[in-house]
Design a protein that fits this description.
The protein is mainly alpha-helical. It has helices spanning 6-72, 77-98, 102-132, 135-180. Helix content is 92%, strand content 0%. It is rod-shaped, with a radius of gyration of 29 Å.
Length: 181
């Protein structure tokens, strides 16, 4: 080092700074791209969790509309029930397209079957009975609907929990990778 000229020392120092800057830039670029990928996974899991929660919400709303029809003998609630049922179907189909495990697919199928049966009981049994003011039969069908909506709510809860676990795992994995970096 003592035998090097001042110019050579300056050029060498400059090259070291340039090399360190390039290394820092590469590390930053790699970290940013990895963060982008992790963010995309987290965003997808959050979207899935939101859909699962919407399905649970619409199940409760359908039940509420049914109860309002029965308790208040208010047939104007049929339109509200149908609007909620349409929202439920739309969100349920979106959620079904996102479920990636066999267990989740079984839960979705159970949910679909129970929800369709629930809608059928409402339209084919409860509404006609409300129209005829036959309260004894209404209570019987309401009990049947209670069982069906219980299945819908149970499967929605399982889906919510499953998607929530996947979201938690993705967050934990992202945090672990950030700590390693």
């Amino acid at each position: 080092m003592k035998n090097m000229s001042l110019g050579a020392k300056l050029i060498g120092g400059f090259l070291v700074v340039v090399a360190l800057t390039v290394v820092a830039g590469c590390v930053a670029y790699w970290g940013t791209s990895r963060l982008g990928a992790e963010t995309a996974v987290l965003e997808q899991r959050l979207t899935d969790a939101s859909l699962a929660n919407k399905v649970g919400y619409y199940a409760i709303k359908q039940y509420q509309e049914q109860a309002d029809t029965i308790i208040n003998k208010d047939l104007s609630r049929v339109e509200a029930f149908d609007a909620v049922a349409q929202s439920m179907d739309t969100n349920r189909e979106l959620l079904a397209s996102k479920m990636d495990t066999a267990e989740e697919q079984v839960w979705i199928q159970d949910l679909v079957t129970a929800d369709e049966a629930f809608d059928s009981v409402y339209h084919n049994k409860i509404v006609p009975e409300v129209q005829h003011q036959l309260q004894n039969l209404i209570r019987q069908y309401d009990g049947e609907s209670d069982v069906l909506i219980g299945v819908v709510e149970d499967r929605a809860d399982k889906l919510i929990a499953s998607v929530g676990e996947e979201l938690d795992e993705a967050i934990a994995q992202s945090n672990d990778e950030q700590l390693k970096a």
